[in-house]
Amino acid sequence: MTSVANTAAAPARDPGALVDVQNLKIHFPILTGVFQTEAGRVRAVDDISFEIRKGETLGLVGESGCGKTTTGRALIRLRNPTAGKVFFDGRDLMSLSRGELRRMRRRMQIIFQDPYGSLNPRMTVGSIVSEPLETHHLSSGHRMDRVRELLALVGLNPNYTNRYPHEFSGGQRQRIGIARALAVEPEFIVCDEPISALDVSIQAQVLNLLVELREQFGLTYLFIAHDLSVVRHISDRVGVMYLGKLVELGPPTAIYESPGHPYTRALLSAVPIPDPKAERKRRRVILTGDVPSPVNPPSGCRFHTRCWLYERLGRPENCRTEDPPLRQIGDDHRAACHYAEDALKSDVGVAHLEDRVRRGTPAAVAARHEAAAQAAVPHEQGAGVAGTGE
């Protein structure tokens, strides 16, 4: 077996990063008694560092309660961290005053998970979409024209401005939320599980819309999701979280074909494949026990209490005593595992997976844009996600 010491050097910061997260921690106090004394802390996010490059989509996956949404909200300062820093375009968001933060929010927006709870039922669609324009004093005198333009952009009838949210389906409500996020022409959008509450057929439409908008406006996304197949389709890089820690980060080809963390392989082993031949090759990983409490996480590697590789290697001591760093194991590929090299040699979790078409930001996108500009004709979008058109 192969182990690497904790002294592994941290990767150099990417100068092209739009969002740079450094040692982010978000803890929630547990208060008890009449005097509300602190009895402990929920370590929702516990010392993670990563960057999101300008123009890319970073997919963030993991089990429920691992800290994905809390991380996403901290990136646009909807949640103040306990420790650490978040830099947006080189500026520390935590050092901004209220006025400076308001001006900065025009460049950062969020699409919420629940398309039913994220829209005010007492406001019309026109009021909902125009509210960011009023807050930032944009399109004065022509706001409703801008609202109609945004509704048409997301595939809704521009004449729906006087309707209320209860008159729309879930997919239409999510489109209204996307129009609201686009109203101030942001550079960065946190997509907090934007399709998890939608029907499968509508999910493909919303995904296609997000891809098209990114290519049209050069947006940068943090895409939070549970569905590993969806994340692979649209992401340029994928991050995997477990119990408040970022355990793996890399391009989709590396994460899905040769993951270096045992937890990532366990997630991939559960990906449903409608192919009997692939199903026969599946090497399923059944994780034993429950997810540990974030109030009192295990010492050392947080995954070692459920790790199949830990058991296979004879329960090495450093897994119980040393917290593994997120270290380089390949080209732009990092994993937080002492024995990532041993995981790479295994086909556990990936034996049944085959290459799939991805809708990320390949070099072909720039070539298509250049060809479209030269031809002076409207840009035609490619095929829909999973073969389903808009």
Layout of helices and strands, plus pairs?
Blueprint: E1 17-32, E2 37-53, E3 57-62, H1 68-75, E4 83-88, E5 91-92, H2 98-105, E6 108-111, H3 125-135, H4 143-153, H5 170-182, E7 188-192, H6 200-217, E8 220-224, H7 228-234, E9 237-242, E10 245-250, H8 252-257, H9 262-269, H10 276-281, H11 308-312, H12 317-321, E11 327-330, E12 333-335, H13 340-344, H14 363-375
Parallel strand pairs: 3-8, 3-9, 6-7, 7-8
Antiparallel strand pairs: 1-2, 1-4, 4-5, 9-10, 10-12, 11-12
Helix pairs in contact: 3-4, 3-5, 4-5
Describe this protein's structure.
It is a single chain. By secondary structure, the protein is an alpha/beta fold. The protein has a domain at 118-185. Helix content is 32%, strand content 21%. It has helices at residues 68-75, 98-105, 125-135, 143-153, 170-182, 200-217, 228-234, 252-257, 262-269, 276-281, 308-312, 317-321, 340-344, 363-375, and strands at residues 17-32, 37-53, 57-62, 83-88, 91-92, 108-111, 188-192, 220-224, 237-242, 245-250, 327-330, 333-335. It has an 8-stranded mixed beta sheet with strand order 6-7-8-3-9-10-12-11, with helices on both faces. Helix 3 (125-135) crosses helix 4 (143-153), helix 3 runs parallel beside helix 5 (170-182) and helix 4 crosses helix 5 (170-182).
Gist of the model:
Helix content is 32%, strand content 21%. It is an alpha/beta fold and 390 residues long. The chain has a domain at 118-185.
